[in-house]
Amino acid sequence: MATHPRPAPETLPVTLADVQAAHGRISDQIVRTPTFISKTLSELTGATVYLKFENLQFTAAYKERGALNTLLQLPAGTSGVIAASAGNHAQGLAYHANRLGIPATIVMPTNTPTVKVTQTEGHGATVVLFGDTFDAAYAHARELEAECGLTFVHPFDDIRVIAGQGTVAIEMLQDVPSIDTFLTPIGGGGLISGMAVVAAAADHPVEVIGVEAELFPSMYNRINGTDMPCAGDTLAEGIAVKEPGGITSGMVKALVDDIVLVSERNLERAVSLLLQIEKTVVEGAGAAGLAALLQHPERFAGKTVGVVLCGGNIDTRLLANVLLRDLARSGRLARLRIRLQDQPGALFNVARIFDAERVNIIEIYHQRVFTTLPAKGLITDVECETRDRAHLDRLMGALRAGGYEVSTVELA
């Protein structure tokens, strides 16, 4: 990955001076989000874990930084800005453009969730729905840029945006000078490019590690010459980018030490842990850094790691599903499939065992027709709540001791 010594700063398209200038430009107009240690996550992972709470920005994501830095450098009399985005870049650009009195147009795919359209319009932007994919929306935005004389603001492949995003690292090292590793999500590469510029100029070695979802290893492919597929329904849609930027790819190749990939299961676990332990809501992309610590603990053991919680915009129903799935995987929520005889008292006798083991029954589902059992047989699924995996195991042992066939209905 990166070669050492690192390239001379003046050979890079974004320098430390650019990032410092951006910080001076934007710092009084964004939230100075805190960087706090997580003692519990440190004990869990074996690293000293510091979290940068960028989900506390007004639009709940770090994207405001790059958008604002770009807006503040536009020439006087700019007729308006335009972007293609269904995510945090749209809201960050719309919010700050509205504050500065600059008209903003955001092109979104037609299948963008209504809540994101409404939020972006709520920040004063004109939303144009076009095409079924981001690529189609992007192409249309570039057409409107030319037709209407607007200024296009790219979500990541722009030196002003990269410099703005790099201000995250300036604040983290100011607050916690002992950080020796940045663990940063990669989508298009704007955030990690800016942070890596700051890390390269630090007064002590700071390793920069990127994180991508296993389903979308686009930057990993670009840097390592691999050809893994980029497709699928990832929880981390904020970093589900098929083609990373040209500027950012060059900067990542020069400055980033490694890229690790994380599974959907660890992304889900990270979102759940951050809510349970830190009491903070983080979207899938924002939880990618913690997911890497969970999946590759030996890689970061003993390090002082700065993790950016880069966004908190997650659909509430999706968040509920993630939390329930985590309860199921930990054994605190389970669905047991039990074979009964279809006769009076059968369910009552099973329920007595649940009562004796002090297990709460949430739902009961009977299956009489669509089953391979004889006509008098009955499959019953019982959804229940236990204290932990050991408690669930005791319940299943008691059911089997009572003569019942029982199995768990497992998650994917």
UniProtKB/TrEMBL annotation:
Domain ACT: 335-412
Keyword Oxidoreductase among record annotations: no
A Gene Ontology BP annotation from the UniProt entry: L-threonine catabolic process
An MF annotation (GO) of this entry: threonine deaminase activity
Enzyme Commission number(s): 4.3.1.19
Catalytic function, reaction form: L-serine = pyruvate + NH4(+)
Domain of life: Bacteria
Keywords assigned: Lyase, Pyridoxal phosphate
Pfam families: PALP
Claim: Nucleus is one of the keywords in the record: no
Cofactor(s) it depends on: pyridoxal 5'-phosphate
Gene3D superfamilies: 3.40.50.1100
InterPro entries to which the protein is assigned, alphabetical: ACT-like_dom_sf, ACT_dom, ACT_ThrD-II-like, Ser/Thr_Dehydratase, Thr_deHydtase_catblc, TrpB-like_PALP, TrpB-like_PALP_sf
Family: Belongs to the serine/threonine dehydratase family.
PANTHER family linked to this entry: L-THREONINE DEHYDRATASE CATABOLIC TDCB (PTHR48078:SF6), THREONINE DEHYDRATASE, MITOCHONDRIAL-RELATED (PTHR48078)
Record's protein name: Threonine ammonia-lyase
Lineage, uppermost ranks: Bacteria, Pseudomonadati, Pseudomonadota, Alphaproteobacteria, Sphingomonadales
